[in-house]
């Protein structure tokens, strides 16, 4: 398997941009609601925003830019990469390993400053909710601005959405490890490769160095390829007719990201030195 750290291609660059755009959109919505956060009013506002997003994505300017960017890279990607772009697990795994070290992961100090007076479990829950909303946003954007019937671009569009959602989820996995004081060992490259393996296994990082767990042909490498191929299959729902794809893609992405986050959180919290509160 190709090693992480190579220069990303056009599709992977677009996915990295999409991750940043989607995360920033969700975080800006969260900041806007913090002024009167608390109780049923805040929950009602968040649910209303989710319904508006699913029914009428045009009401969010950032979402328009996000979908247009994905459509643009799909058209360009067809001409730049030709038939080399595929939603197969082997190609996707190479792109994920290239993308992972470039994801904007917040460390423990940053997370604690952004979520003051919250216990580890509370921060973890907030991260899971934010990531699930971000991945839903990507699904809605792709469904609303899909370039179909420009059929040759469909594969690139699916690959871009797949990489974007996986990037959001790997970022979530990494930040959950920070929250629970379980940062993977090694430098950025080794650490993020270990988080890719954790994403594939749906649990926290073990003690093995990240560079070893994804050796070509290893069981974890094969598991990663299978998970990515399945993820690409789910991304195809976003290309449904009219806005049905947008709604389906958003709901599927949100459900899957939340499920992943809860699995990793439950595993980490049982092994973490941080129990109900911070130490030190």
State the end-to-end distance: 41 Å
Radius of gyration: 18 Å
Secondary structural class: mainly alpha
Number of helices: 11
Order of helices and strands: HHHHHHHHHHH
Number of strands: 0
**Major beta-sheet overview:** none
Instruction: Estimate percent helicity.
Output: 55-70%
Q: What is the molecular shape?
A: globular
**Which whole number gives the mean pLDDT?**
76
Uncertain runs with pLDDT below 50, 5 residues or more?
56-60, 78-84, 147-152
Q: Approximately how much beta-strand content do the residues carry?
A: under 5%
Number of structurally distinct domains: 1
Describe the structure.
This protein has 280 residues and is mainly α. It has one domain (10-271). It contains eleven helices and no strands. Helix 1 (10-33) crosses helix 4 (89-99), helix 3 crosses helix 7 (154-179) and helix 6 (120-144) runs antiparallel to helix 7. The longest helix is centred in the C-terminal third of the chain and has 28 residues, at 244-271. The model is unreliable at 56-60, 78-84 and 147-152 (pLDDT under 50).
Secondary structure elements and pairings:
Blueprint: H1 10-33, H2 39-55, H3 61-81, H4 89-99, H5 108-114, H6 120-144, H7 154-179, H8 188-201, H9 210-213, H10 219-235, H11 244-271
List keywords for this structure.
single chain; 280 residues; mainly alpha
């Amino acid at each position: 398997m190709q090693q992480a750290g190579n220069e990303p291609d056009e599709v992977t660059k677009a996915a990295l941009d999409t991750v940043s755009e989607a995360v920033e959109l969700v975080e800006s919505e969260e900041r806007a609601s913090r002024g009167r956060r608390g109780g049923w009013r805040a929950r009602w506002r968040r649910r209303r925003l989710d319904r508006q997003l699913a029914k009428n994505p045009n009401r969010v300017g950032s979402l328009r830019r996000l979908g247009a960017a994905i459509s643009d890279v799909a058209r360009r990607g067809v001409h730049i990469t030709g038939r080399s772009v595929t939603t197969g697990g082997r190609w996707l795994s190479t792109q994920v390993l290239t993308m992972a070290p470039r994801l904007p992961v917040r460390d423990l100090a940053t997370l604690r400053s952004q979520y003051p007076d919250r216990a580890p479990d509370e921060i973890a829950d907030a991260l899971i909710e934010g990531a699930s909303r971000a991945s839903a946003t990507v699904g809605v954007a792709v469904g609303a601005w899909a370039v179909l019937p420009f059929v040759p671009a469909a594969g690139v569009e699916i690959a871009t959405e797949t990489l974007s959602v996986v990037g959001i989820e790997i970022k979530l996995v990494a930040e959950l490890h920070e929250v629970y004081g379980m940062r993977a060992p090694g430098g950025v490259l080794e650490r993020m490769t270990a988080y890719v393996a954790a994403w594939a296994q749906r649990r926290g990082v073990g003690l093995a160095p990240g560079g070893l767990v994804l050796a070509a042909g290893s069981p974890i490498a094969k598991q990663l390829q299978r998970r990515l191929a399945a993820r690409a299959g789910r991304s195809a729902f976003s290309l449904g007719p009219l806005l049905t794809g947008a709604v389906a893609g958003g709901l599927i992405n949100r459900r899957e990201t939340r499920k992943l986050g809860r699995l990793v959180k439950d595993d980490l919290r049982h092994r973490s030195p941080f129990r109900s509160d911070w130490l030190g």
